[in-house]
Amino acid sequence: MPCNSTIVRNKHLLFIQIIFVSLRYLFYYFTQCCIAIFAGLLFTRFWLISALYAAWWAFDWETPSKGGRRIQCIRNWPGWRYMRDYFPVKLVKTADLDPGKNYIFGFHPHGVLVAGAFLNFCTEATGFSKIFPGLTPHMMLLNLWFRVPFFRDYVMSGGLVPSDKESASSVLRKPEGGNVLVIAVGGAQEALDARPGAFTLLLANRKGFVRLAIQHGAPLVPVFSFGENEVFDQVENPKGSWLRWTQERLQKIMGISLPLFHARGIFQYSIGLIPYRRPIHTVVGKPIQVQKKHNPSNEEVDKLHQTYIEELCKLFEEHKLKYGVPEDKHLSFI
């Protein structure tokens, strides 16, 4: 008979797997449930719940763009630690960051699940507050999700803010410093190329975050999450294929990407939606100091953008062998 420790470990593993079955689709299905509940209650004797929430929603409309409303007990939920240990996920610091400044973290790659960014910056599972004392992370998320009743409050509890200039400026304007704006630079479009062994980043023409850094004088910090692309396989969707065309059209219409991913199941390893148990090491690089200028020229933006790419490549090359990336693999940019 299996020992008690094995039974407990298996229960924890099953718990983690159940979380993952819903996590990627949480943003799609849970949002629909929230909308359905909000609308459905209006036609029942509990209509007052939706009416009161609507009043609160109108009053609280601007909160997401003003830094959100994090709830520490949600960020410290024990379930996140189980999720961390599943892969496992680890946050790696390479340099101290001055808590008297505001920073922009450029996170790469986006991956399918964005597990590294979520666990490291939207929860305390990997100990962000202990590793970077005095800093508060705010990860950017599509504006769409902040327009969904009930769900908006959930995403704000983790410290997420809308991905628009107003929200970014609100985070970076803090005069005493201590804020970190986390941007998955490749965005949803990069998720369509997330698969094991992929090291191509959508960055060559992504310069908005660089301009933002100059306007606020916020140091840029490259972040590379080794293993982020290894946790899911994806149906082949080369550019020019009907599948890729459909995915890109849907992204333009909906603002979100729909990669057809797969990995393992709960009780078998051949097929399913559970991510593979492969380690993710999110390495935070050294800050690139930025001179503040309200209206930077295109040349100044291009120069800093090139410096950022060089520092990101340097970070990747310095750590890739340690985290299982072959020596002949290098980053490429599109």
UniProtKB/TrEMBL annotation:
<keyword id="KW-0443">Lipid metabolism</keyword>
<keyword id="KW-0012">Acyltransferase</keyword>
<dbReference type="GO" id="GO:0005789">
    <property type="term" value="C:endoplasmic reticulum membrane"/>
</dbReference>
<dbReference type="GO" id="GO:0019432">
    <property type="term" value="P:triglyceride biosynthetic process"/>
</dbReference>
<dbReference type="GO" id="GO:0003846">
    <property type="term" value="F:2-acylglycerol O-acyltransferase activity"/>
</dbReference>
<protein>
    <recommendedName>
        <fullName>Acyltransferase</fullName>
        <ecNumber>2.3.1.-</ecNumber>
    </recommendedName>
</protein>
<keyword id="KW-0472">Membrane</keyword>
<keyword id="KW-0444">Lipid biosynthesis</keyword>
<keyword id="KW-0812">Transmembrane</keyword>
<dbReference type="Pfam" id="PF03982">
    <property type="entry name" value="DAGAT"/>
</dbReference>
<dbReference type="InterPro" id="IPR007130">
    <property type="entry name" value="DAGAT"/>
</dbReference>
<comment type="similarity">
    <text>Belongs to the diacylglycerol acyltransferase family.</text>
</comment>
<keyword id="KW-1133">Transmembrane helix</keyword>
<keyword id="KW-0808">Transferase</keyword>
<keyword id="KW-0256">Endoplasmic reticulum</keyword>
<dbReference type="GO" id="GO:0006651">
    <property type="term" value="P:diacylglycerol biosynthetic process"/>
</dbReference>
<dbReference type="GO" id="GO:0004144">
    <property type="term" value="F:diacylglycerol O-acyltransferase activity"/>
</dbReference>
